[in-house]
Amino acid sequence: MELYLRDNDPTRTVMLEASGEELYKTDTPRGGATSVVRFQRQASVGLVSVQIGKVESTTHGGSNLVLCENGMEIVLRPPLDSEWAFVGPDGRPYKWQLMIRYPVLMLNDNSLTPIARYRRAKLGIVSRSRRAFLEILPAGVNIVDLVVVTFVSYAKQYLLPEASSSFES
């Protein structure tokens, strides 16, 4: 499953399927918490949006991530080096790790089973252009909401500060 980002900022975008159907939306008001919303079709009322997560920055550089469907709060510390570990609502350990410039979510156990990976957009100068996308691998199909919410939090902490510091220099 691939979720394409309409805009290249994971904290302010709509995530689409290859068919163009909108599945998720992220929004970050200036200086505020990032909300993650899932769109779902219901026969009686049509398209409904459900908030599935909220990412709040903390004063010590980490994030509080609230999974809205089950009320679970995950406190995420700032990433150390290139990996970011947490325990999901299913009790399993996960980690986002930067591998060759691309973040990958994997199980944080002996198997290191890949769950998802993010591919940045390409401009198309040397190769074909493409939109940025979050690829959900078969092991992550049952936890797509968790993948999306933790990816947005990881991007807010790790990917976006990198981009803003490169623009300043």
TrEMBL record:
Pfam families on file: DUF6593
Ranges where the DUF6593 domain occurs: 8-154
InterPro entries reported for this sequence: DUF6593
Protein name (Swiss-Prot/TrEMBL): DUF6593 domain-containing protein
Lineage, opening ranks: Eukaryota, Fungi, Dikarya, Basidiomycota, Agaricomycotina
